[in-house]
Amino acid sequence: MTRKFDDKIGEIVNKYRNIPYKHNGRSLRGLDCLGLIIFFYQEFGIDLSEKDRTYSREWYREDPSIYLRELLKVGRAVDFDDLQALDLVYFELLPDVVTHSGVMINDSEFIHILQKRNVEVASFNRFWRKKFAGARRLIK
After folding, report:
1. pTM metric for this prediction
2. What is 7-137's CATH number, 3.90.1720.10, 3.30.70.560, 3.40.50.300, 1.10.150.670?
3. pLDDT at 50 over 80
4. Residues 4-8: contacts with CB under 8 Å, at least 24 apart
5. Fewer CB near the terminus (10 Å): N or C of the chain?
């Protein structure tokens, strides 16, 4: 059974939902997945901006592990079965390359943004479970 997220998370989800995708976007007019997690965690007093960098359109060809290396510097690892609200989740949308991330909003849904889409909430269906590469807990 899906647990409802608390009011603060709900307000933040509503604030960011439907913002359009923009490569290296860092404003409410356009975000990429890293921009979204930076903004989302700032709402809870966590500054991830030092992990931020400008990524070329095909950064994963230049240095495929850069995104994962930066994500692994924050928080602590969390197993899939222990996911909870506010855990950072990341995915391998390309084979063996972490290229995507989001934030859990309850124990089975996460907020994220994909290219050519808007910020949205997704549930861990078969597709996302298969692409899941790990999670980090930044908030106790």
Report:
1. 0.88
2. 3.90.1720.10
3. no
4. 4/106, 5/85, 5/105, 5/106, 5/109, 6/85, 8/43
5. N
